[in-house]
Design a protein that fits this description.
Number of domains: 2
CATH superfamily of the largest domain: GntR ligand-binding domain-like
Oligomer: single chain
CATH topology of the largest domain: Four Helix Bundle (Hemerythrin (Met), subunit A)
Number of helices: 9
Strand order of the largest sheet: 1-2
Structural class: mainly alpha
Largest sheet: 2 strands, antiparallel
Shape: elongated
InterPro entries: GntR_C, TF_FadR/GntR_C, Tscrpt_reg_HTH_GntR, WH-like_DNA-bd_sf, WH_DNA-bd_sf
Distance between the termini: 31 Å
Organism: Streptomyces corchorusii (Streptomyces chibaensis)
Keywords: DNA-binding, Transcription, Transcription regulation
Radius of gyration: 19 Å
Helix content: 55-70%
CATH architecture of the largest domain: Up-down Bundle
Pfam families: FCD (PF07729), GntR (PF00392)
Order of helices and strands: HHHEEHHHHEHHE
Strand content: 5-15%
Protein name: GntR family transcriptional regulator
């Protein structure tokens, strides 16, 4: 497997999210460099970035390891999303372009069509694209980056059950886009907050809190910790 050096960070992150590397497992530069067909330099840089993002921790005598988020840290991520996604929607109502609206409306049409057919796998992908585009429409690079990072971490820590009412869910997406198109920031914020709150209930932890070993780290999963 050989990938461009600048894509190493994305590749390692995707493999962590997919469970290729288990929580707590060691990440050695030599093995990673061999797996992705690059030198150790881009691997080292990628591990630093992933540590800052909270996917990796550096432990004394062990080196880089996949982080082991607690149940509370995982719950915090969902709460953060319910706060930031409505902010992004409000900003999108003020800053969106016609190109953003075209993409969002297209995704809503596809989502509603797939929801009527019961194509749940398609709906997950379309939902991700919808929220990514909505974040980009906010015109804030930092907010978009934070929301993208939250989505990666939530996908890593949670499985998402199929929504009870997929048609209703995509009707909510459509209402959000309508508010954004009208420039109604407060309605876009309120609708997105309600949508995010409902979506939270479909998330189930991938790991079992009952079997999780106690950790003493003082650093939340979404915050970079010091390197030893």
């Amino acid at each position: 497997m050989r990938i461009p050096a600048h894509s190493v960070c994305t590749a390692i992150r995707d493999d962590i999210v997919a469970g290729v590397y288990e929580r707590g497992s060691r990440l050695t530069e030599e093995v990673l460099a061999r797996r992705y067909g690059v030198s150790r330099v881009p691997v080292r840089e990628a591990l630093r970035t992933l540590e800052a993002e909270g996917f990796v921790v550096t432990r004394r005598h062990a080196g880089a390891c996949v982080a082991e988020p607690t149940e509370q840290e995982a719950a915090d991520l969902l709460e953060m999303r319910t706060l930031l996604e409505p902010l992004g929607a409000a900003r999108a109502a003020q800053r969106r372009t016609e190109a953003h609206l075209k993409v969002l409306r297209g995704l809503v049409r596809l989502g509603q069509e797939r929801a009527r057919r019961g194509s749940n796998e398609d709906l997950r992908s379309l939902g991700g694209w919808f929220h990514e585009t909505l974040a980009q429409a906010s015109g804030s690079t930092s907010l978009t980056s934070m929301l993208t990072q939250l989505r990666h971490k939530i996908a890593w820590m949670y499985t998402v059950e199929a929504p009870v009412g997929p048609v209703e869910s995509w009707t909510e997406h459509g209402a959000i886009v309508d508010a954004v198109a009208r420039g109604d920031a407060e309605r876009a914020r309120a609708l997105t907050a309600l949508h995010a709150e409902r979506a939270t209930g479909a998330h189930r932890l991938r790991f079992s809190p009952a079997t999780e070993r106690v950790r003493t780290s003082q650093h939340a999963v979404n915050m970079p910790g010091p390197r030893h």
